[in-house]
Amino acid sequence: MSDEEAERVFIRLRWSDSGGNAYCPHCGGTTVYMARRPNGSARWRCKACHKDFSITSGTLFASHKMPLRSYLMAIAIFANEVKGKSMLAMSRDLGTQYKTAFVLAHKMREAMGSEVTKFEIGGDGKSAEIDGGYFGGYVKPANKRENRRDRRLRENRSGKRKVVVIIRERGGEALPGVFGSEAEALNFIRANVLPKTTLYADEAASWDDLHAKFELHRINHQEAYSLGGDKAIHTNGAESFFSRMRRGEIGHHHHIAGPYLIRFAEEAAWRETYKRVANGKQVDRIVALAMRHKPSVDFCGYWQRRRAA
After folding, report:
1. Average pLDDT, the chain
2. Any alpha helices (H) in the chain, and if so which ranges?
3. At what angle do helices 98-116 and 87-94 cross, to 10 degrees?
4. Which listed residue, 188, 238, 243, 269, has the most CB atoms within 10 A of its CB?
5. How wide is the angle at C-alpha 257 spanned by C-alphas 251 and 258, nearest 5°?
6. What is the pLDDT of residue 182?
7. 212 vs 124: CA distance, rounded Å
8. Is the dihedral angle over the CA atoms 289, 291, 296, 299 positive or is it negative?
9. Between the CA atoms of 53, 55, 61 and 65, what dihedral angle is there, to the nearest 10 degrees?
10. Pairing of strands 127-135, 162-169
11. List of residues 6+ apart from 14 with CB closer than 8 A
């Protein structure tokens, strides 16, 4: 793919609401004319406010250094993975530093998260599953047996381990949240699950208070993983999400604790939601989300801020 073809893809997806016709991101003016840079990259000038803008101005990829073709290739590589993409592997695929791949991957996760956080779960006649899984904060056991400690005890933990609580609509979207414990997620569930939704959960006592607001069915995993016929009582949809995220943690990312955990959870939820969608459409969707998203507060100038600190 040439640079011009990559430009056309980004133009089509950024200004899809105007049929691919560029308009000013500063004032919204539709009367613009092409003022290409000497290096040939596309740039427009607005007749109303006289400001210049490019394809990525005011978006997640603003002030990009690599050609758009490289960004499109990175998104295609990222979307093609089922359980996530290692940022070291992406740096080798793109021929860039690890730092570049790290920021770029997190920007794509931020684009995915912008859609995931807007998901509405459930409604009248619909069902959703809730469950929690613990991630991050791995404590390596000591070499000698006499120095090893029971890592199940709070005093022997790192303090970084958090629970990812997933709300998974059957046949629909998945919405994750990160908390210190499952009990802390109750308000999150009440706020994001629509009324008259039938919920399914396991036997954990953390979910007991949800009986007051929702029709809640429970499954004791010590007795069975699934019970019933058409409206089976199980949390297999939530477990499917955790399986995808767990394999991504073990096989690709290894360390996903701290402030990054929610981003990895949103990525896994997005992949789980659109797992039946063709890869090409997934790429278009990620590009469109990135083009509608404002520049990243967290990852714009990320390494410069860390160096200054």
Report:
1. 92
2. 3-14, 68-80, 87-94, 98-116, 186-192, 236-248, 261-273, 279-292, 302-308
3. 120
4. 269
5. 155
6. 94
7. 17
8. positive
9. -80
10. antiparallel
11. 55, 59, 288, 291, 292
The letter for the amino acid at 238 is A
At residue 155, the 3 state secondary structure works out as helix
d(CA 64, CA 60) in angstroms, rounded, equals: 9
Phi, psi of 163 (to 5 degrees): -100, 130
Residue 154 confidence (pLDDT): 82
Q: Are strands 32-34 and 44-46 parallel, antiparallel or unpaired?
A: antiparallel
pTM to 2 decimal places: 0.91
Q: What is the DSSP letter of 125?
A: T
Q: Are 90 and 77 in contact (CB under 8 A)?
A: yes
Percent of the chain predicted with pLDDT > 90 = 79
Structure-token match 């613990």, residue found: 134
Residue 185 backbone phi and psi in degrees, to 5: -90, 0
CA geometry: angle at 79 spanning 74 and 82, to 5°? 130
What's the pLDDT at 86?
A: 95
Q: How far apart are CA 62 and CA 300, in angstroms?
A: 9
Q: Are 128 and 198 in contact (CB under 8 A)?
A: yes
What order do you get walking across the sheet with 32-34 strand by strand?
Answer: 32-34, 44-46, 52-53
Higher pLDDT residue, 152 or 47?
Answer: 47
Tell me the pLDDT tens digit for each residue of 6-29. Answer: 999 999 999 999 888 999 999 999
Name the DSSP letter for residue 71.
Answer: H
Tokens 């469950």 found at:
131
Please answer whether residues 119 and 174 qualify as being in contact, where contact means their C-beta atoms are separated by less than 8 angstroms.
yes
C-alpha 5/C-alpha 25 separation (Å) is 22
**Paired tokens of 84:** 């996530």
Q: What is the average pLDDT across 46-64?
A: 93
The span from the CA of 10 to the CA of 41, in Å, is 13
Contact 104, 76 (CB under 8 A): no
